[in-house]
Q: What sequence folds into this?
């Protein structure tokens, strides 16, 4: 594992400086980069120190950094590497005989009992019938050409499973190829060339004082034997993946129970002996219990199971015989459904070696929004901003009307306020016969309170299906927030102060008692010439126009009074 530390050179002089690290590889496994470079004036220059030890080592070293035309700097490096201790909770992996085409899984846990991270790798390039899978969704397992790699933190336990899926008749007996913290080759081959003079040879000084002690190598690599046998296939499943996809046009028939879709798969006995098969339905499966998927034989009569102790459909196949297993799909509402059917051979219920994966989808009408989310630009308080978006219906088989409802939004002070006015531009009717059916919605946003939130618009059709659309809005009187708006309308509005007041924050704190009585907020005043309001998004001002004729003399008198107080003349 590579550990990276960063230190910084600070140039407090009057000119830029050039530096050179006299020894970029002071300790085996350590690389300092960059080896040379420029240290700008009044800036920090980052230098990385990467350590990837290949053995247990304690070190204490000095690294010299030469500054051109200046003195040498000394950096002291000390530390030690700790050996990771990794173990597997199983003494061995013994699969026994597994039929070709079947899958056997053996879960295990890999544990790191040390305090440091461990990079564990399983190299299964030579064993194509074996693979590794993580049982923890939070663990990242990286696969690269059947080389599996994961990082185990200190004092951590990660659940994995070794999968054996034989594709041929074969016998396996080998040690699980595992490595812990295999050294990175890129650090060993790192080279640093410098165009500058080697100061150590000129001055005759040793840039490094090294004290290190090495002991042991990585001895805590678990060795586990894998024993498995690939047998002749017992049965063959013609279609192990059954997929249904039903359009919404059949939804009414499905709801009335007058329609279902059926697909079949064949079970074929490939051995020279009779094989007994059974679908194991003892485990709880909601889609099967709700009747969304049903199993039946060639007569399409659904199988009716009893309690959870009973098994599913079963039978006996002679050599080279085949039978059909049908799956019926009859959902009660639109959605995606999945189910796994374990196939047990010869009453070996401890583990099902074959599986049939069933998935079904009943499509539902939807409406798509263009764009998917509408983000309005920030505007000052009280300014109206207009925009529009479009609705495109998909999957509707008959006409339907849309209703629109605008929900309230939370202001910054947690008050619920209505800031958006929305309405349909054209007729809100969904017509499946019109390929260009596009519904336009116009919105107008304005807020008198600071807000930065998402406003939901709810659309409901005649079948009471609900669809939500998000409009992101922001409004306040901050110049930083509304800079884009003010920059585009710099000749349309003026930022002024209310008559007789000064802007907050423009006087020292020691005059707080004076300024607190006279400070105020800036206001946005529209200019008399509004001919430049030609943007695509219409904006209308709602500001007080009285300030346009205000006499500036009270402000000047007040400024003179406060300036005199600041100078100590009052």
A:
């Amino acid at each position: 594992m590579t550990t990276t530390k960063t230190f910084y050179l600070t140039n407090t002089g009057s000119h830029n400086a050039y530096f050179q690290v006299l020894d970029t590889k002071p300790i085996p496994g350590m690389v300092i980069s960059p080896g040379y470079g420029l240290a700008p004036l009044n800036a920090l220059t980052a230098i990385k120190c990467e350590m990837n030890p290949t053995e247990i080592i304690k070190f204490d070293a000095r690294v010299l950094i030469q500054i051109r035309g200046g003195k040498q700097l000394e950096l002291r490096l000390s530390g030690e590497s700790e050996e990771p201790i990794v173990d597997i909770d199983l003494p061995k992996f013994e699969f026994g005989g597994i039929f070709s085409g079947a899958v056997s899984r053996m879960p295990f846990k890999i544990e790191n009992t040390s305090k440091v991270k461990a990079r564990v790798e399983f190299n299964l390039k030579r064993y194509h019938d074996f693979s590794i899978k993580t049982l923890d969704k939070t663990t990242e397992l990286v696969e690269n050409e059947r080389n599996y790699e994961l990082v185990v933190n200190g004092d951590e336990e990660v659940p994995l499973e070794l999968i054996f899926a034989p594709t041929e008749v074969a016998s396996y007996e080998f040690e699980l190829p595992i490595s812990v913290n295999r050294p990175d080759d890129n650090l060993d081959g790192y080279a640093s060339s410098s165009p500058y003079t080697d100061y150590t040879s000129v001055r005759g000084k040793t840039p490094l004082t090294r004290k290190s002690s090495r002991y042991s190598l990585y001895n805590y690599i678990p060795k586990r034997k894998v024993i498995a046998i690939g047998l002749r296939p017992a049965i063959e499943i013609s279609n192990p993946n059954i997929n249904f996809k039903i359009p919404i046009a059949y939804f009414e028939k499905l709801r009335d129970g007058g329609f279902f879709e059926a697909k079949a798969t064949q079970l074929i006995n490939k051995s020279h002996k009779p094989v007994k098969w059974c679908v194991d339905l003892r485990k709880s499966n909601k889609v099967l219990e709700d009747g969304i998927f049903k199993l039946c034989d060639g007569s399409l009569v659904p199988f009716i199971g009893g309690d959870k102790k009973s098994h599913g459909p079963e039978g006996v196949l002679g050599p080279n015989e085949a039978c059909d297993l049908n799956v019926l799909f009859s959902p009660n509402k639109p959605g995606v459904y999945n189910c796994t059917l374990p196939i047990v051979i010869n009453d070996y219920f401890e583990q099902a070696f074959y599986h049939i994966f069933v998935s079904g989808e009943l499509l539902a009408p939807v409406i798509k929004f263009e764009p998917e989310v509408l983000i309005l630009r920030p505007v000052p308080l009280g300014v109206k901003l207009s925009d529009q978006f479009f609705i495109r219906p998909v999957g509707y088989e008959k006409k339907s009307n849309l209703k629109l409802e605008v929900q309230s939004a939370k202001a910054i002070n947690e008050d619920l306020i209505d800031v958006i006015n929305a309405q349909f531009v054209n007729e809100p009717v969904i017509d499946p016969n019109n390929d260009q059916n596009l519904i336009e919605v116009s919105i107008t946003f304005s807020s008198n309170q600071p807000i930065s939130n998402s406003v939901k618009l709810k659309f409901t059709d005649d079948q009471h299906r609900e669809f939500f659309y998000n409009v992101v809005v922001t409004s306040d009187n901050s110049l930083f927030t509304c800079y884009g708006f003010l920059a585009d309308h710099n000749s349309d509005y003026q930022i002024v102060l209310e008559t007789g007041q000064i802007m907050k924050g423009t006087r020292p704190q020691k005059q707080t008692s004076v300024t607190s009585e006279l400070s105020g907020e800036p206001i946005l005043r529209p200019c008399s010439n509004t001919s430049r309001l030609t943007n695509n998004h219409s904006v209308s001002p709602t500001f007080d126009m009285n300030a346009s004729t205000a006499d500036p003399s009270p402000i000047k008198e007040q400024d003179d009074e406060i300036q005199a107080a600041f100078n100590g003349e009052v």
